[in-house]
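During the second year of the project, the team shifted from modelling isolated chains to modelling whole assemblies. The rationale, set out in the original proposal, was that interfaces cannot be judged from single-chain predictions alone. As a representative example for this report, we include one of the complexes processed in the last quarter. Its constituent sequences, exactly as entered into the pipeline, are reproduced here:
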Amino acid sequence: MSVRVVAGHDLRRIRRSRGLVGLVVVSLVVFVGGYLIGGLLGSGQDPASVVRVRLLAIWLVAGPTVGFVATVVGAAGLAGEREARTLRLLASLPLSRAQLVYGKTVARAGVITAAVTLGTFVSLTAVAAGTPVTSTGRLVGFAGFTLAVAVSYAAVGVAVSTVVSADRVRAVAVGVFVATLVWPRIMGFGVETFGSERIELLCQFLGTLTPFGAYSQVVSDSGAVLAYEPTSAVLGSGVMALVILAWTVGSLLVARHQFPKTAL
Amino acid sequence: MGKVYNCWLIPVTVSNPVLVVDGLSKQYGPVTAVDQVSFSVSAGEVFGLLGPNGAGKSTTLDALIGFTEPTSGGGAVAGHDIVESSTAVRSVTGVLPEDCGVYEELTAVEHVELAARAKEVDSAPERLLGRVGLTEESWSRPAGGFSKGMAQRLRRAVALVGDPALLVLDEPLSGVDPDGIAELARVIEQIAETGVAVVFSSHDLPRVERVCDRVGILNDGEFVGVERLTGDRTTELILSTDTHPRSSALSELRALDGVEQVGWQDGGVHLTVTEPTAKAEAVQTLGSHTRVRDIRTRERSLDEIFAAYTASEERDDTDVATRREVTVS
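Output from the structure prediction step:
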């Protein structure tokens, strides 16, 4: 009940500050932009290749942007209250620290989800309409994983805001996001360097252990950037879904554990 | 049955305590911010927590409302344990935190509605906003355009949502102009008259004196005393005599119940009297030794009380003897 109170309160503030409008605009720009870039890159190719290139372009443009924005929006939930000196006002109400964390996460993930849903719907519908050969399942999976990774990064942002002092929250949140972004690439060097199949598989798997790594493994094209042939179940979409879920749940647990220790 | 607390207190019996603080301590690493603080506040009473900056006032209040967890000790608000049930504590407590903002994009009504939803009570925002003196035209305006005084009134309205049993005000006087202070004093008085226990912190002694029934004095994290400012207030009794009384007479005076300090100065015996009945006994006792020419009483100002408690860093054995037990019935 009180999680709803916090979430409703935060959603109202975001709406009033036109934050939701801004997020929708960003989402449409990056998803539609990705779609258009993909169209340019794939022009002249066969329909299946055009779909492939369009999805790759959407992933490449929208994926990091969604993760970045979600992390920053999540981090701003509690940090923003602290900066505006309203956190003590909110905490003076009969709301537990856990309810504050969950309520903020629900609200922040909610607005990100709304914005990303619109962006993915528009861009993927355009992909499907333009090329009838597209697999519906792939598009649904693409959309689902995009939303899941957005929620996961929002939770990461919230967790960062409970661990780091208010003046460093944004910098650390961006730092954490960038680390999760480059981690798959770093592991990619291992994949390219070692000859052993087992070590190669290990590096491939380790590279998927960030939200962006797992997301890329599923939605990017197999054998293309940051995605490997799922030669083992550990590289399959089920495990990748678990990785993203683990980041979401783990971040919430960290936030719940740390926030009561945080000075208001 | 009463509950016994060890603390630096004059003998005061507090009935129906809404707030009980018992041996509350807070450590930040090697630093002791608050050490073994105990006091209680009854329904309808206004209790001021005084002390210089850094004395531990805000830490004490933060521990009461669950903003920080005590290292040891604890307390209760309307029967709810401040550590185990801090959410329940805040459901019966109105809090006006120090240095706290308002939501710039939300209206005054929405602030009150938020608190009402959190406390699961009917909001009646208009009644509360009117009660704290916010004019009707401001109720639907975003609080970002409020003046400092209006924002303070709004925070007060939020604190009063749900008719709390306890009102906690952290430094409510800081940054408030004299008119605002007079108004706040009136509001606090009105709130207390409805049976709400009020606790607030301040380092502004003259202003506190106008508002409080009792004050607790904190110094360097230690609770060094409680003084009643209304009713049976501690007074200084000055008995003028022709000659310096014998030491046996002064010893007899010291032995009286309700007499705390006895000394000779400027042709008179000066006594600190904490019980009204002790005055007559003191006159009678001294009169049996020497002729009492004049009897005068003087209420000690809060400044004097504060100075008396905080002046000496080290308390001797005599002072320790004044440590009393307070029975809360």
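Chain B touches chain A through 34 residues (CB under 8 Å). Chain B has eleven helices and 16 strands.
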